[in-house]
């Protein structure tokens, strides 16, 4: 498995969805517009990051989904 601290080789515009599974997994998230971010990890764990500020980067970790319950927007995913 890749190390989540390695530099990203690609970027992905993310629209929160319960159906979209990232392949490869996303390692960091940039949040452009504040709100809550709900994610599913590579292990299937679900976590909610509440009150994430504009311009904040979350991670590093391995994320399989950014769930539809997310209220933040303008999200960019970093992957390799």
Biggest β-sheet strands, sense, barrel: 4 strands, antiparallel
Helices and strands, in order, run as: EEEEEEE
* Helix/strand/pairing category: mainly beta
Strands, total number: 7
Total of helices? 0
> Roughly what percent helix?
under 10%
| End-to-end Cα distance | 11 Å
Major β-sheet strand ordering: 1-7-2-5
Shape: globular
Instruction: Give the amount of beta strand, in percent.
Output: over 45%
Q: Mean pLDDT, as a whole number?
A: 94
Extract low-pLDDT stretches: none
Radius of gyration: 11 Å
User: How many domains comprise the coordinates?
Assistant: 1
Quick structural overview:
With 80 residues, this protein is an all-beta fold. The protein is built from no helices and seven strands. The radius of gyration is 11 Å and the shape is globular.
């Amino acid at each position: 498995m890749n190390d989540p601290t390695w530099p990203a080789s690609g970027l992905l515009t993310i629209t929160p969805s319960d159906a979209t599974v990232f392949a490869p997994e996303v390692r960091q998230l940039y949040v452009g517009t504040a709100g809550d971010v709900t994610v599913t990890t590579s292990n299937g764990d679900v976590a909610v990051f509440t009150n994430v500020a504009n311009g904040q980067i979350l991670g590093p970790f391995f994320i399989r989904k950014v769930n539809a319950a997310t209220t933040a927007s303008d999200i960019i995913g970093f992957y390799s």
